[in-house]
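In this section we walk through a basic example: taking a raw amino acid sequence and producing a predicted 3D structure, encoded as discrete structure tokens. The instruction is simple. Fold the sequence below.
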Amino acid sequence: MNTEPLNQKSLERVVSQKALQIGSSFPCQICVVGFLSGVCLTSLFLAALTSLGTFEFGGISFSSISLGNSPLNSSSSGFFNTVTSADCKFKRKEIFTERWVDSKRSENGVDDERVSLLHSAWSALLSESVDGEIAFWQSSGLGKSAVPNAPHLENCKLSEQINEHLDKRAENERLPPWTTWKGLLNAHPASMPTEQLRYFRHQAIPEGAYPPWITGSDEENYPLTRKVQRDIWLHQHPENCRDPNIRFLVAEWERLPGFGIGAQLAGMCGLLAIAINEKRVLVTSYYNRADHDGCKGSLRSSWSCYFFPETSQECRDHAFELMGNKEALERGMVTTKDNYTSKEIWTGRTPRVWGEPWRFLQPTTEINGSLVASHRKMDRRWWRAQAIRYLMRFQTPYMCGLMNVARNAAFGKEVAKMFLTSLGKEWPKDFGNKRRSDIEEFVWSNHRPWIPRPLLSMHVRMGDKACEMKVVEFEGYMHLAERIRQRFPQLKSVWLSTEMQEVINKSKLYTNWNFYYTNVTRQVGNATMAAYEASLGRKTSTNYPLVNFLMAAEADFFVGALGSTWCFLIDGMRNTGGKVMAGYLSVNKDRFW
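The resulting token sequence is shown next.
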């Protein structure tokens, strides 16, 4: 609380005493009660208007709406107190002698003002604007050392360092150090000596060293997922990129008008299949969706703005050198997308290097109340899942930052409330920059960022998609969500992704669910997806779908439309991410099945 001059406090006491004397008359009491009732009603109205906090990063503003008995149904996100009905107790002494600057207590005893302060501090740490960040720390009086680590945020720089280590071949080794201890345990003083670790790796590799980006066992993923991911990495990372026997396929991402992100990804999955079949290293080039000011320097116009590159920098450099060599082109040492027909790219032969593992896909997809045991495109479904998992194996700091901002905007206040409830001291007064314990530093640092669980992801595709598939109204998706909740009654949180404002409006009618979604302008009517994306701009129209995609991959359950390429790819990402046994409820089937 701010300290005031002595004469001002004396004046307040005099005014308070006079007010108490005057207030003893009944007519005056009536006037005071009427006046304060009006103040309460006005404050409640203003609080309702400001209760949705937004934050912007990378061209996206994120928002959450929590209905019913939601933990996110809190006060304004500013530093000013809002008067709630619980505060409208007309105690004359309190009203006239107390300045309303103390924190108001919410129902569970947590200060709403402190929740907002902690949430805003986390937002400031994520802010792109240096000036804005400095302004916050100056105005709040907080130091960065007083801000606790947020369990819903990822240390992007540290993750990049760890992932780079796991994406490079160890010295004189065939594979990266995938069989070492997880996270930062290798850096612990008690870790085994390097020679012992090398011996352990040599013992483990014959038994099968598998990439760390695969979660779960073989039974929790599509057949052979761990082996296939290892083999793709080895194929894309030859030991000597300048070996004359190494050939390349250099391909731009599809840029035809009307091609969404899903179509571009599906096309690149086809090109990776061609590269494997022809024993070429795939090298991606211009990516139009990364051609914006969020992707800096050499990352601009590149897939590696969002995810780790598909091959090593040495192979990329050599492939582009060969592109300028006429003889190399004539001898077929390097090919481009133009060397292949659309049919070869989109419906070409699935690699048979691993046999036909798609014949053993578990029937975990339900359409119209029945599990789908088989269909005509099982090979394509299996392969696209493998390809998309490899291409998205590790996030870059930019993509990691987008995810952090999304989680903080959607779940940040909820996390702040939980943190302050569990903290046994008055934050921020008695909270210093204490040294993290070893278990926090070396073990728990490997845990994924917190999200409310169980979480259902729902992608509702409507609009111009009606020309390609059967479009189902939002009510149909919610019917499937209720089906899941009958079996898992603790489910109440939904990450909702859609391009239609109509869907967002309808979600507010389901008051027994908590909906989270990105706060972007959405379609009203049936404009084409190309026109809609153009209205958002390249940066926003790329960033927010990728955030939704990765959130869907992390969620416990998924409801979508397999007739949508985007949902098809989400399904593949989940089925190579340990989510096979979560199942998939679809409102329709793929049009090619």
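Looking at the output, two observations stand out. The chain has a mean pLDDT of 81. Residues 401 and 452 are 19 Å apart (CA to CA). In the next section we compare this with other chains.
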